[in-house]
């Protein structure tokens, strides 16, 4: 069953004639799964890149290797470059991305349950960090749900 936000995203994107793509790392396709679970998603959702490997982030999405070296793969800079990269690649109006640590594992800088969510549109991009305290499966679902909420809020602000 689709969540409220998934239906609101579909309504917003279809009514405005705008499109969406996703770049997923730690969510492993969960965002795409949630979006395409709503009938009519093909009216606005173009597709995604599941860039689990750093090499795919760099070669497909165009994430700068120097940014990864300097900031780490779990960072605002990488989340933004992932969203901007998939937006460029697909030609979508907007894009959302995730990079993080679903678990197990983590460190002082990025504990288990950390996700950076990137959103990109025609005129701007931003990233937000969230930390969740679930097991791996719970964290992945939390990450994807939170990414959709961030995307929806970003687009609402952007089109006003």
Q: What descriptors fit this protein?
A:
5-stranded mixed sheet, globular, Maf protein, 160 residues, single chain, alpha/beta
Helix content: 40-55%
Shape: globular
* Residue runs with pLDDT of under 50 for 5 or more positions: none
CATH superfamily: CinA-like
What is the name of the CATH topology? Maf protein
Strand order of the largest sheet: 2-1-3-4-5
Name the average pLDDT.
96
Q: What is the gyration radius calculated from CA atoms?
A: 14 Å
Query: CATH top level?
Result: Alpha Beta
> Could you tell me how far the N terminus lies from the C terminus, measured between alpha carbons in angstroms?
30 Å
Approximate strand percentage: 15-25%
Report the CATH architecture: Alpha-Beta Complex
What series of H and E elements makes up the topology?
A: HEHEHHHEEEH
Q: Count the strands?
A: 5
Query: What structural category arises from helix and sheet content?
Result: alpha/beta
Topology summary:
Blueprint: H1 4-16, E1 20-24, H2 30-36, E2 45-50, H3 54-59, H4 65-71, H5 76-90, E3 94-100, E4 114-120, E5 125-131, H6 136-159
Helix pairs in contact: 1-6
Task: Give structural notes.
The chain is α/β, with parallel strands linked by helices and 160 residues long. The chain has one domain: CinA-like (Maf protein). The protein has helices spanning 4-16, 30-36, 54-59, 65-71, 76-90, 136-159, and strands at residues 20-24, 45-50, 94-100, 114-120, 125-131. The longest helix is centred in the C-terminal third of the chain and has 24 residues, at 136-159. The chain is globular, with a radius of gyration of 14 Å. The N and C termini lie far apart (30 Å). The relative contact order is 0.18.
